[in-house]
Specification:
The chain is an alpha/beta fold and 270 residues long. It has 2 domains: 104 residues, Enolase-like, domain 1, CATH 3.30.390; 126 residues, Rossmann fold. It has 10 helices and 11 strands. The longest helix has 21 residues. It is globular. 44% of the residues are buried.
Length: 270
């Protein structure tokens, strides 16, 4: 599995150094983990938990609230493999923080990191390309509407699209047909939290560009490149205290431009 390979890459690259969890914030839109060395990672927080009435049962699958700080970062990273989406969110935020450690120290094999760069600006999209987007990225939709492409948007929440954008919507039931036909695939990083990214990447092997995007899409890219991803559009946190405060106060990705910057990790072309 992709996440298992990511964990192995980070353990090797960082020599499993004894990092611990400094603090965790599970916000409405994003979950944030800060490590003992000050590096920060974020991941999508699943919100449509069916068992949420007052105190969700899924929350009980996490280690006890109030006891996350001080735990081994490597133990917490294993939560990314949990059957619980909430646990996976914490685990992936931890993996993104560990990835930030590694990217601060080492060059990316077979690729490069671009600061203050939007993933769609470095993706090669030609006129007439069939573009399949998994997850409704509003800024991406605005840009793609101005290009001569055949856009299809696969999102379980049809209401995420407005007005004329509804003509791009495709039911998730059609994903097995739409993705293999795509020249360009754009996939939300939250698929790692929701589950199923391995399968999605298998479906779009015929695409000449595969973009993984969103704050969750910030991990060490090596295992993603090996599975066909060509561009990863994530974030790099610059001000951990301010970033944590924003997330704790219900901030979403639209608020991250101050304490965080967009990054694009691009696979080198052969």
């Amino acid at each position: 599995m992709l996440i298992e390979d990511l964990i192995a890459s980070l353990e090797s690259g960082l020599d499993r150094r004894p990092l611990t969890i400094a603090q965790v914030c599970i916000g409405v839109f994003y979950t944030v983990v800060e490590l003992s060395d000050g590096q920060v990672g974020a991941a999508f927080t699943p919100r449509d938990m069916e068992d949420t009435v007052c105190c969700p049962r899924s929350a009980a699958e996490l280690p006890e609230a109030g006891k996350l700080s001080g735990q081994s970062a490597w133990d917490m990273a294993q939560q990314a493999l949990s059957p619980s989406r909430l646990c996976r969110s914490v685990g992936l935020a931890t993996l993104n923080a560990l990835s930030a450690c590694l990217m601060a120290e080492k060059d990316i094999p077979g690729g490069r990191l671009l600061s203050n760069t939007d993933a769609l600006d470095v993706a090669h999209i030609d006129a007439g390309d069939k573009v399949a987007m998994v997850g409704a990225f509003t800024p991406f939709i605005r840009k793609l509407k101005k290009q001569d492409v055949d856009l299809k948007i696969i999102d379980k929440h049809r209401e995420a699209l407005k007005g004329k954008e509804l003509s791009f919507w495709v039911s998730p039931d059609s994903i097995a047909k739409v993705m293999p036909e795509a020249d360009v695939a754009i996939i939300t990083g939250s698929a790692m939290v929701e589950g199923g990214l391995d399968g999605l990447l298998e479906l779009c092997k015929g695409a000449h560009e595969v973009v993984l995007a969103g704050p969750t899409a910030s991990p060490w890219p090596e295992p993603f490149f090996a599975r066909g991803v060509t561009v990863m559009g994530g974030i790099r946190v610059k001000d951990s205290a301010e970033f944590m405060r924003l997330v704790a106060e219900g901030g979403s990705g639209y608020f991250f431009s101050g304490p965080a910057e967009k990054i694009a990790i691009v696979k080198d072309k052969k």
